[in-house]
Amino acid sequence: MATDSFQLLSDGLVELCRNDSGADRLITPRREEILSLLIKYITEIELCNPALSLVGTNDRQELIVRHILDSLAPLGLMTRIITKHNTPPARRLQIADVGSGAGLPGIPLAIVMPDAEFTLIERKGRRAGFLRNTQTALDLSHVTVEEAEMEKAQPGRFDVVTFRAFKPLEPKIVKKLLRLCGEGGVLAAYKGRREKTDDEIAALETARKQGNTLVWEIFPCSVPFLDEERHLVLIKSFN
Asked: Which domains does the chain have, with CATH numbers?
């Protein structure tokens, strides 16, 4: 990786830590290891992107900012979810990345969060193959790849179900995703502009008025070196 790109990634991690103590606790003690793994991951994406169309850019700096750092931007919020979740001491937190594609946000999160178990759910065979190869290349023993449609994935297993650039927050989609959550589980949806996010939430408001017991919160997320709005939507059901 070119020195300037490496520096961009390094500076981005520093910026994440500066803005959030939760991210700092996860990144700073392992910063060099995390950088090394992220660089290997970026290399895997660049090698396979021409054949698999994993991300919509061939520019390395754009890949770092719009995909890697974007995936890590809600890291502090994720740590607070973990802190609040009453996971039994003997069980590791279970996190799913649905429609994982290139492994975003699942693989960057897994690199930074080695104490949680990650399941990458991807229905397309070639992309699932890329995820399996990447899991092996990065030696991420706490990551599992499932080649399946979300409707056919085993339900009730996860504490956190996350997704990015996957589906809009339509009530039917949210219901299918929530079935993957165990008791007290939460959806963590990566979203962009607040205006567009509010438009999607409006459909959930209608569903709630019809009796669905959904609750949600919207949090702004700052992506280093990206002057665009990003938000994380946390959704729970109390059915």
From this structure: 3-237 (3.40.50.150)
